[in-house]
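Summary of Year 1 activities. Much of the first year was spent building the evaluation harness for sequence design. The harness presents a backbone, in tokenized form, and records the residue chosen at every position. We chose the following record to illustrate the format because it has been used consistently in internal testing since the harness was completed.
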């Protein structure tokens, strides 16, 4: 019984994807948690500092690299905000949205 399909779907997608490492997974899990807290709907507004803290990532360079790679690899759509006082927007791809 699959009680949280988005998690199962992500792990199924990355099973054969050798490009994905621990930092990618950690950030995606933090994004998935934010999606869950947001009521399970896309898009999700995120704050870099909160995602980094939840993902246990302390280097901005690592965060930026992984977020950009997750987008490049097709796991998310990332819309950064140039204003540091506003949230960026993430769309988690291939996630069933609540109806």
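For this record, the design step produced the sequence shown next.
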């Amino acid at each position: 019984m699959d009680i949280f399909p988005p998690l199962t779907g992500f792990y199924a997608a990355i099973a054969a994807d050798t490009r994905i490492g621990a930092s990618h997974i950690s950030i995606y899990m933090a994004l998935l948690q934010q999606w869950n807290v947001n009521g399970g709907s896309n898009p999700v507004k995120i704050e870099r500092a909160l995602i980094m803290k939840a993902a246990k990532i302390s280097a901005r360079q690592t965060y930026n690299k992984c977020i950009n790679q997750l987008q490049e690899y097709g796991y998310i759509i990332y819309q950064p905000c140039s204003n540091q006082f506003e949230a960026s927007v993430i769309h988690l791809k291939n996630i069933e949205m609540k109806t």
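The CA atoms of residues 49 and 60 lie 9 Å apart. Quantitative recovery figures across the full test set are reported in Table 2.
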